[in-house]
Amino acid sequence: MKKIQVSCPITATLNVIGGKWKSVIIWYLKEKPLRFGELHKKISKCSLKIFNSDLKDLEKDGILKREVFAEVPPRVEYSLTEYGKSLLPVIFILREWGVKRLIDNPDLMENNEELKYFMEIITSTEDLSFLDKFK
Fold first, then answer.
1. Taking burial as the number of CB atoms within 10 A of a residue's CB, which of 44, 74, 100, 101 is the most buried?
2. Is pTM beyond 0.90 here?
């Protein structure tokens, strides 16, 4: 685990999951391990440089486990550690709050067709009763 300068428990958490892609990586690994290419395909808008950097940071912080299989060609899988799984409730509540914010402020989705699409799916397929806690 890398040492970080923190001023409070919130910054200690944000130093681990902060940035544009780390929480997204954690989200996609919530159910099962994924190979490098599978995971990057899910967030292809993330550059390979940033993607690699975020994976290394999450691994150093003990959130991800990187497993290399001695095969030809070599196979690398990423999965959440038990410590990483303990972040899932935080990621879920951040997602829920974000859904509420986007429902309340649809202008935030302006010019973002991908986000509009995701919100359409979320609002048409999920039980949105979780939004009640944000009143």
1. 100
2. no
